[in-house]
Amino acid sequence: xxxxxxxxxxxxxxxxxxxxxxxxxxxxxxxxxxxxxxxxxxxxxxxxxxxxxxxxxxxxxxxxxxxxxxxxxxxxxxxxxxxxxxxxxxxxxxxxxxxxxxxxxxxxxxxxxxxxxxxxxxxxxxxxxxxxxxxxxxxxxxxxxxxxxxxxxxxxxxxxxxxxxxxxxxxxxxxxxxxxxxxxxxxxxxxxxxxxxxxxx
Length: 201
What we know:
By secondary structure, the chain is an alpha+beta fold. It contains six helices and nine strands. The chain has one domain (33-200): Glutaredoxin, CATH 3.40.30. It has helices at residues 2-24, 59-62, 79-96, 115-122, 136-145, 187-200; strands spanning 48-51, 56-58, 67-72, 102-107, 130-133, 150-152, 162-164, 168-172, 176-181. Strand 3, helix 3 (79-96) and strand 4 (102-107) form a beta-alpha-beta unit. It is globular. The protein starts with a helix and ends with a helix.
């Protein structure tokens, strides 16, 4: 009887270890890499948008390596340029350290941000930055997948501002959302956490 109890206890321990492994499979020790909480798989998802060449692309086409995804608009006077420059700088730091990552900029203002406008905009930040636009419905679907809140800020017909969320999302190919970065995170902080996530994956 004692041997049976010991055997059952041993099997229970193996089961707990196995379940723990399965739960963390594919994430390695990624959670230890981030300053903030990791929100899990509830952010991100399939989208279909249009790149700067006017071609229709999906999330699977553009998230092929660790990717920093940011939503904004090219007419943004302050926040978007600062955040996009930070993301591009983080990708450059990673490249210097032997890591490859991609910055993506998705507009929430498709009426003004045509593929041509997006092409001119993203090349100011990085040769690697991917600019994406699309129809209003496509943008709405992509933003909803990332829980991005946005809306027109005023009634000016041409020079209106847009209100929008300002998080950058780290997406990993295969496993999806890893963490998000706030505006105060520096290029080095972002790069360090992305590098850690790559090493832990």
